[in-house]
Design a protein that fits this description.
This protein has a domain of 98 residues: Jelly Rolls (Sandwich), CATH 2.60.120. The chain has 1 helix and 10 strands.
């Protein structure tokens, strides 16, 4: 019985020593100074996303999420608008009646010279032809989703 225990202990010492050698060895690659970063912007894809925000002349960024023109009397469109941090007032021109839903951030909206504070998940109704100003005093971008109904008869 004692001989078996001695053999098991000797075997464990041998296995332990053989496993310990690679721990102290260093890999030949991966040491030294890193190469300098590549110059210029990195393009992740050769194809531009159809849902990417696009800058317009007013300073807003927008994208069309959904649009239909099947009905002969009206169009329905869903658009997202992004207001950069610390900007405003920026004018938003809509061609029909709309509901504005605050998706992220917080800011101030002026509809026909009436100021309203916007918080996430708040919804504001906008009548046809009303002047809209967006102000983003915060450090984060403000994203609005606009549900727009445009009358084709006008």
């Amino acid at each position: 019985m004692r001989i078996r225990i001695a053999w098991v202990c000797a075997l464990m010492v041998l296995v332990g020593n053989s496993c310990q050698n690679p721990v102290n060895q260093r890999a030949p690659e991966g040491h030294g100074i890193l190469p300098p970063p590549t110059a210029g912007p990195v393009q992740l894809s050769k194809v531009a996303s159809q849902y990417a925000f696009v800058a317009d002349t007013s300073g807003l960024f927008s994208r069309t999420v959904f649009e239909t023109t099947r009905d002969t009397n009206f169009n329905i469109a869903i658009r997202d608008f992004s207001v950069p941090p610390k900007t405003g007032p920026l004018n938003l021109r809509l061609t029909g009646a709309a509901a504005l839903e605050m998706r992220s951030g917080q800011g101030i909206i002026k509809i026909a010279n009436e100021s309203t504070e916007l918080r996430q998940d708040s919804i504001v109704r906008v009548p046809v032809g009303a002047s809209i100003e967006l102000i983003n005093p915060s450090d984060r971008e403000l994203i609005l989703r606009v549900y727009l109904v445009e009358d084709k008869q006008r």
